[in-house]
Design goal:
Elements: E1 6-11, E2 18-22, H1 34-54, H2 56-70, E3 111-112
Parallel strand pairs: 1-3
Antiparallel strand pairs: 1-2
Bound molecules: zinc ion (2 copies).
Amino acid sequence: MCSDVLLIELLCNHCNVEFYICRKCYRGHVYCSSRCRSQAQLKAHRKAQSRYRTSDKGRQAHCHNEKMRRMGKIKKTMADESTNTPPLRVILYPIMQNTRPRCSFCGVYGKIVDVFPRR
Ligand SMILES: [Zn+2]
Ligand SMILES: [Zn+2]
């Protein structure tokens, strides 16, 4: 049975969801979806920003922005951060107990392995 599809189990680095992925879909995944990837990048970016804000240069820039805002020259530049777009469901087949494991992306059934063996 060497034609078995092989799956590996992964844990999303962002939302911690577990999922299976087949060899065909796997491209070095660390996140369950592109959304999680961009969210994680956003988080990393924010961290960098808050670090920047506490620096002298950052404080000055922030102060400047405040002034501009008070003068009404900046109109909601940070607007989109809080908009709640529904999460894009990339995982079509979440892991279900007592069923045959299948790729969470393309839905193919397969066999769980620790790592994909090299051919
Ligand atoms: Zn995720
Ligand atoms: Zn797949």
